[in-house]
Amino acid sequence: MGTASPAEQNPFAHADTSNASPLKRIFRIVRWTIYAFVLLAVLLLLHKAPPPLVETSPQAAARAEEKFEQAERAVASGQPATLHMDEAELNSYLASHLDLAGNGSSNAPTSGEVPGTPEGINPAPTEVERMRSRVRDVKVQLIEDRVKAYVVFDVHGKDMTLQLEGRLGAQNGYLRFAPVSGQIGALPIPQSTLESAVHRLMDSPENREKLKLPTEISDLRIENGEVVASYK
Fold first, then answer.
1. pLDDT average, residue stretch 129-157
2. Torsional class of 224: left (φ above 0), alpha (ψ -120 to 50), beta (otherwise)
């Protein structure tokens, strides 16, 4: 009489093998599904969103400069003023004043001071240069009562895009931003994550004073596709 095989000696051997195989297949499916989601997320993050079509011109930049000068003259004479700036004027003004990487602007600050920041809030020159070297492009759309910013920045030699849409306002002399939507590359940012990040950014002690508006500005908002600043 021949010796029985191990499988014949153990009546549960076939059951164990048949049960293990489906579990392994399920594990492989789950594993590759996770890999696929991670790969998709990376591709969406690295996808460079196309820039919005915004108009810029030297004439629009000159109009913006003139509006600032008119508001300053009114304030200097003790009169209130309201500044209205459309999308073309805003983008033209930014293009002529922002010292972005590679644009060779001659308007760059020669010290640690950043134009438009309150007195005494002067980041170190190395910090300013590091931030500037990462930002490649900035474009702004004014949509009814919202602002939508498009930013291209460098991450280890790779251009990535950030888009943020929300509402601007002023509260107790500080700039406020209420986010509506955002995305990095082609990947949407969850609303709860976006609100939490903006809240931490704007309310942190090191950033709060940088968001303080000039004392002569009493209100700042987007209205009918224009930036509206009220001077007192």
1. 80
2. left
